[in-house]
Write a structure and sequence with these properties.
By secondary structure, the protein is α+β, with helices and mostly antiparallel strands. It has a domain at 23-77. The chain is built from three helices and three strands. The protein has helices at 27-30, 41-50, 68-77, and strands at residues 24-25, 57-60, 63-67. A three-stranded antiparallel beta sheet has the order 1-3-2.
Length: 80
């Protein structure tokens, strides 16, 4: 399957000032429209699988979270 060469840009930091700097965040807080990463769920999970996006942590059988520090590092690296 061919991948698109189109780059996805994160929203400016001023738009998600309430995004935490530390702690754990759920996927709904990471992805648009509430979060700073403008990709869909399937794109996000494909990126996790191939290493473009941070690996999650499981807090329970139905609770998956990411470290907020990892998301900020992703934004600062400009991987999107």
């Amino acid at each position: 399957m061919a991948r698109s060469s189109k780059k996805v840009r994160a929203r400016p930091e001023t738009e998600f000032q309430l995004f935490p700097r530390t702690g754990f965040v759920r996927l709904t807080s990471i992805l648009a429209p509430a979060g700073p990463i403008p990709v869909g769920r399937s794109t996000w999970w494909a990126g996790v699988k191939d290493g473009r996006f941070p690996k999650p942590m499981k807090l329970g059988s139905r609770v998956t979270v990411w470290r907020a520090e990892d998301i900020w590092a992703l934004l600062e690296r400009g991987v999107l």
